[in-house]
Every structure is written in structure tokens, then in C-alpha cells.
Backbone:
């Protein structure tokens, strides 16, 4: 045996694992050194008897197997391996035996490479495996803290979350629609050590009267239809975190009530007289720009109370390499659900990287899913949805609004709203931001005059 590390099990280490079973000492040493320079934990074996016990308990990300070994063949090694494996197996051999090559191709190994193996080919193979490992690790991290990406922008975001999470200071998350503000809020809660629930509410999705009842609760009989006492989100999040999404959409009178609750630490249910103490960590979020004046639509005193620790959630267009990482992860999840094995077509990357992604990660996920469902082979070729004209519009009028003399203001508004919603793929928050109105205004207009009539 040439070298064996005492490191155990792949999941416990932060680097990919490589193994080679080959009695050519020079080739094995060169390969191990090359793998280690690329960040792999490397293990080398000379014989079947040495390799099989270790490989039976481990699942290297890449295993190179020589066909001819002193005490057997590479096929003997494969025969002793567990059937359920993630790692890639590749045969390498200097033998010109056609039957061996044919059997190698039909075995669980993914490739058969003849010796001498060019260093460039080996480096390319190691880099491919390293990329696949990074995707799996990123997916595991995404499951644990809700954030996915290795770009500088995402690393800074995770650092900010780690700094703020252990403290009970209020956090204001600022970021575009679809950039992942709720995922960041959930990561803050997960790292806070608080034992209560994470409760999320979109302040722009509910009318003011209903939002007040949902936030602070109400007593039985406090208004028509209040047949039972209702505990609001503050009480539901007792000992945990309350996430107030789109805080700038909250009606101003309700903001005064919220400020009082934050300053006193008690809530008073609608229709009630008792004050209920609450221990809740507040995280708010807005898609609106943050400047020296605070956030549009938010009272200055409430802004200063919420923005004790502001954090910016980066838009997708500044995250570079994360776009490919996200696209591959979305495809992997779709594969898991559908039982297929599709892959990202690298030819789509240029268009994906050049697109501004106004809908951010949500838009990318939609583009990948559409391409996945439409692909007729094993390759997925996502295209930015916003680059495609609406189905009812020609290339000339897509994204443009045409008015004519004699149209009513209601007709003008309906057409403008319809075109804006089409452009943002139905995202009402993004459409509201483009039009300079609140999401509540969008909902009200849709209720009066459906835009696709």
C-alpha cells in the first residue's frame, strides 16, 4: 500500500475525496499529488485486498481503478462495493485487451481511460469532480441555513448574518424582490439560539384592518365575525422571531401601533384591555431603496427602531458564478422529484450571466423549471423569461403600451398594469415597484378590473 489517510467518511470533511487503486507506484504518486494540489483528500492502494475494506466504508468522490492488479482486477474491487454510491469510478489501464475494455464500459464505472493518461485529461477530470462536490456541499448548506452561493456577495451576506444572529437587535433586510430576504431571515433565526417559532407575515398582502388583527390578535366579539379569541403573530412567535416582510407597505396608523409594541414589549389585542408581554425578535424586510431618509413609506421613528442592524441581500445579477450553481441545484432537485438525470447545457450560461434578472433567484428558478419541463433529452437549456415577448404580443409591441385617443383612464390603467405584470412574469411586488405604487393598489385594481379581460 502506498499511502492511507486516517480521515473518516466523506461527509465529515470540507474537501472532496480521491482514491486510486494501482500498482504502478510512479503513476499513483503523481496522481495523488495532483489531486492534493486541487484540494482533494487522496488515498492510494496497490492491491484489491487493501482497497476493498476501505472502499466498502467510504464513498470517494472519484476512484481510479487499474484493470490489472497483483491479486486480482479492478472488476474484483467493484464487485465488493456497495450498490448505492455517489462517487464516480473510472477505469485506467495500459492493457490493450479489447474484452477488458468492453467489460469496463458496461460496468458501474463511468469511463475507461487508456494509459498513459495525459496530465491535462486527469486535471480536467479532477476539476469536473471538484465542481460536482461543490454543488453537493452548497446544496447541503442551503438545506441548513437557507442560503446558496459561493460568490463574494453571498459570503459577505453570511458574515453579516453570523454577526447579527446571536444578538436580539432588530434587523432590517433590504433587497430586491425574489433575492431571498425571507431565506436570510430564516438563517438569522436559525443561528439566533431562540427556541420559539419563526413566524412570517407579508405586510403588503393584507388590508390594514386584517393585518392589525393578524399581528396583535383580537378578543371574542371585538368586531363582526370575531367569534373566538385570536392570538396574533406576536404571541405566536413568543420566544422566537417575527419576520415582517415588505414593512414599507404597512399602513401608517398601524405603524404607530407597531412602534409602541416594539418600545414597550407588550401587545394589546383588538377589543381587549389587558397588555400581554411578548419576547420576540423582530426582522423586517423591504424591496425599497435604503437612503439617508430611511425607507419610503416607513415612519422615521419606526425605521430607526427596526434598522438597528441593516443588511443588504444582494441581487442575483451581482452574484456571478452563483447563477450556474443555482441552476444546477434547481435541476438536481427536479431530477430528484422526477427520477430523471438531466443536466444543464453549458451553452446557456452566456445568456444566463448576461441577463439582469429583475426577478432574481425566483425568476431563475422559474426559467430553469420551464426549460426542464420542455427539454426532450437529457440537456436543460434555460433562457431568461423576461427576454421572451408575451404570448399575446408581437415582437414589436412586447413591453410597450399603446394608447389611443378616446380611451378612458380606467382603460389606460388596465393596459399599463397588464403590460407591467406580463413583463415581471406576474410578480405583483415587482410590478408595483416599477409603477411606483403599493402592492395593495395592485390588488385593489385587479379586484375592480381584471387586467386580462
Residues:
Amino acid at each position: 500500500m502506498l499511502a492511507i489517510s486516517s480521515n473518516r467518511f466523506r461527509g465529515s470533511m470540507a474537501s472532496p475525496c480521491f482514491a486510486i487503486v494501482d500498482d504502478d507506484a510512479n503513476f499513483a504518486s503523481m496522481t495523488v499529488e495532483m489531486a492534493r494540489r486541487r484540494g482533494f483528500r487522496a488515498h492510494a492502494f496497490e492491491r484489491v485486498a487493501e482497497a476493498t475494506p476501505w472502499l466498502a466504508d467510504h464513498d470517494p468522490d472519484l476512484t481510479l481503478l487499474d484493470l490489472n492488479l497483483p491479486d486480482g482486477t479492478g472488476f474484483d474491487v467493484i464487485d465488493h462495493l456497495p450498490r448505492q454510491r455517489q462517487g464516480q469510478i473510472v477505469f485506467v489501464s495500459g492493457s490493450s485487451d479489447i474484452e477488458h475494455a468492453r467489460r469496463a464500459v458496461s460496468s458501474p464505472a463511468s469511463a475507461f481511460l487508456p494509459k498513459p493518461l495525459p496530465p491535462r485529461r486527469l486535471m480536467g477530470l479532477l476539476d469536473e469532480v471538484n465542481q460536482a462536490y461543490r454543488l453537493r456541499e452548497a446544496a447541503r448548506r442551503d438545506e441548513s441555513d437557507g442560503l446558496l452561493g459561493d460568490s463574494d456577495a453571498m459570503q459577505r451576506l453570511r458574515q453579516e448574518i453570523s454577526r447579527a444572529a446571536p444578538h436580539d437587535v432588530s434587523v432590517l433586510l433590504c433587497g430586491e424582490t425574489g433575492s431571498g430576504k425571507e431565506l436570510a431571515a430564516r438563517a438569522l433565526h436559525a443561528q439566533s439560539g431562540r427556541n420559539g417559532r419563526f413566524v412570517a407575515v407579508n405586510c403588503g398582502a393584507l388590508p390594514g384592518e386584517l393585518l392589525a388583527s393578524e399581528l396583535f390578535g383580537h378578543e371574542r366579539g371585538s368586531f363582526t365575525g370575531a367569534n373566538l379569541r385570536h392570538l396574533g403573530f406576536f404571541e405566536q412567535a413568543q420566544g422566537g422571531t417575527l419576520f415582517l416582510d415588505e414593512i414599507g407597505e404597512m399602513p401608517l396608523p398601524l405603524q404607530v401601533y407597531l412602534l409602541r409594541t416594539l418600545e414597550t414589549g407588550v401587545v394589546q389585542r383588538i377589543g381587549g384591555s389587558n397588555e400581554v408581554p411578548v419576547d420576540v425578535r423582530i426582522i423586517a424586510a423591504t424591496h425599497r431603496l435604503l437612503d439617508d431618509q430611511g425607507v419610503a413609506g416607513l415612519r422615521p421613528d419606526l425605521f430607526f427602531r427596526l434598522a438597528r442592524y441593516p443588511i443588504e441581500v444582494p441581487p442575483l445579477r451581482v452574484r456571478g458564478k452563483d447563477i450556474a450553481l443555482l441552476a444546477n441545484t434547481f435541476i438536481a432537485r427536479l431530477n430528484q422529484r422526477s427520477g430523471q438525470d438531466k443536466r444543464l447545457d453549458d451553452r446557456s450560461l452566456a445568456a444566463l450571466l448576461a441577463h439582469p434578472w429583475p426577478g432574481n433567484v425566483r425568476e431563475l428558478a422559474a426559467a430553469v423549471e420551464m426549460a426542464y419541463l420542455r427539454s426532450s433529452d437529457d440537456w436543460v437549456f434555460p433562457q431568461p423569461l423576461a427576454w421572451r415577448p408575451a404570448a399575446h404580443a408581437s415582437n414589436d409591441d412586447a413591453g410597450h403600451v399603446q394608447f389611443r385617443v378616446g380611451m378612458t383612464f380606467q382603460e389606460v390603467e388596465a393596459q399599463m398594469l397588464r403590460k407591467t405584470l406580463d413583463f415581471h412574469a406576474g410578480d405583483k411586488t415587482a410590478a408595483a415597484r416599477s409603477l411606483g405604487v403599493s402592492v395593495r393598489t395592485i390588488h385593489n385594481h385587479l379586484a375592480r378590473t381584471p387586467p386580462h379581460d
